[in-house]
Design a protein that fits this description.
Elements lengths: L13 E6 L8 H15 L3 E7 L15 E5 L13 H10 L4 E4 L2 H11 L7 E4 L17 H11 L2 E4 L2 H9 L7 E3 L7 H4 L18 E4 L8 H9 L9 E4 L5 H10 L6 E3 L5 H9 L3 E3 L10 H8 L4 E4 L14 E4 L4 H13 L2 H14 L3 H24 L1
Parallel strand pairs: 1-2, 1-4, 2-3, 4-5, 5-6, 6-7, 8-9, 8-11, 9-10, 11-12, 12-13
């Protein structure tokens, strides 16, 4: 057993990752929980993921995962009868005690941990993935919910901020001095470093090193319309110059705007992508574009681009400004500004700056390798366990 994963009593460390959503659903939070669980287990720990059963009638085979998964019934409501679900936590703890409870949402997971109280005599860590603590979000705006969020934060031994956006949100909700710990999300470098063959079904007009790439939800907040307007200000170089990968309620409007701007030959919509198609598009892009208007907690596509050696063009907002540094791993434009974004797109398409940054970007990616990020989590868990032991002895 790895010595890093021993408590002061020399038992192997058991970590419970408590999340409201997990694989097979695919999204940022699900992928982060899966990656963290895999790397904690690979480092010598024992991991249990506690999650709700999917509401949809998916066939879930958790036995294929390298860590243990325990499922409970999905929440009846995110507002009513939530308190009852603390019993799932306490029952699991009594059957197989863990050393650390790591909640992957302030609410409901962190809140339920706070309700369990003395029945869970272990450190509680909360990671917010952004949406739950965003000011004005639908869940936080419901009557009485602010108190529930504050209770969760008050009970927690540590709050992991994946970005400045979540750090600021924790403090707005009452986090104490020293309670917030900055640990970003990570990325597996290997899949993006190994060249992927061109997918046979990929549109032939999409040529390597001749396009910029957007990957994400087609939602107004993501600013894809700003990227289209900015591209229209740049002289055409021939062929496809912007590949838009993703789905969402803005797709039809964005396609119509593409035609209105006479960008039909310069833009391709390829729908949602995953696996080798996504990896190929990342590896062969000149730059990844993230023109978000308002907020980003921690866009994983930035780390995936860095792992592939590709710089990013983002906007100066929390979550992107934390990751992208001008002339080191990309460039930042003013949010919601066509005039600010347009010269950066033109520079990326027509200049040689993207190629010049590739070595620096690959070095930057090393900081976010999941092995390093998991090690930061391990060190935090150990500090919290030792602190609890000292208080108990003291």
């Amino acid at each position: 057993m790895n010595a890093r994963f021993r408590t002061p009593h020399f038992r192997p460390m058991h970590i419970c990752l408590y999340t409201e959503t997990a694989l097979p659903k695919l999204g940022g939070q699900e992928l982060v929980v899966d990656a963290l669980a895999r790397h904690l287990q690979a480092a010598g720990g024992r991991v249990t993921v506690l999650a709700a059963r999917p509401r949809r009638r998916w066939i879930v085979d958790d036995s294929q995962l390298p860590y243990r998964v325990v499922r409970h019934w999905p929440l009846f409501s995110t507002h009513r009868l939530v308190d009852w679900y603390r019993h799932a936590l306490t029952r699991l703890y009594r059957r197989d005690p863990w050393d650390v409870l790591h909640c992957h949402s302030t609410y409901p997971c962190g809140y339920l941990a706070s309700l369990a109280g003395a029945a869970l005599p272990t450190p509680v860590v909360i990671t917010s993935h952004g949406g739950d603590v965003r000011a004005g979000n639908a869940r936080l705006s419901k009557p009485g919910m602010d108190d529930r969020f504050r209770r969760a934060i008050e009970r927690a031994d540590a709050l992991i901020a994946i970005s400045r956006f979540t750090s600021d949100a924790f403090r707005r909700l009452g986090a104490r001095d020293g309670q917030v710990v900055s640990i970003p999300n990570g990325v597996d470098l290997t899949p993006f470093r190994q060249p992927v063959a061109r997918p046979t079904a990929l549109d032939e007009s999409i040529q390597s090193q001749r396009y910029l790439l957007f990957i994400g939800r087609l939602h107004r907040r993501k600013g894809v319309d700003v990227a289209l307007e900015a591209l229209a200000q740049s002289p055409a170089r021939g062929g496809v110059e912007l590949v838009i990968a993703g789905s969402g309620d803005e797709r039809t409007a964005l396609m119509q705007r593409t035609q209105a701007l006479n960008l039909g030959e310069r833009v391709r919509f390829v729908g949602s992508v995953a696996g080798d198609v996504k990896t190929y598009l990342l590896q062969n892009a000149r730059a990844v574009v993230i023109p978000s208007r308002t907020w980003e907690a921690f866009p994983l596509v930035v780390l995936e681009a860095f792992a592939a050696g590709v710089p990013c063009i983002g906007t100066q907002i929390p979550g992107l400004g934390d990751l992208i540094v001008n002339d080191r791993n990309g460039w930042l434009a003013a949010p919601d500004s066509v005039d600010s974004l347009a010269p950066l797109l033109q520079q990326a398409l027509h200049g040689d700056t993207c190629e010049a940054l590739r070595p620096l970007v690959r070095i930057e990616a090393e900081r976010y390798a999941w092995s390093n990020i998991a090690s930061e989590h391990i060190q935090l868990y150990q500090r919290l366990i030792e602190r609890r032991a000292q208080r108990a002895a003291g």
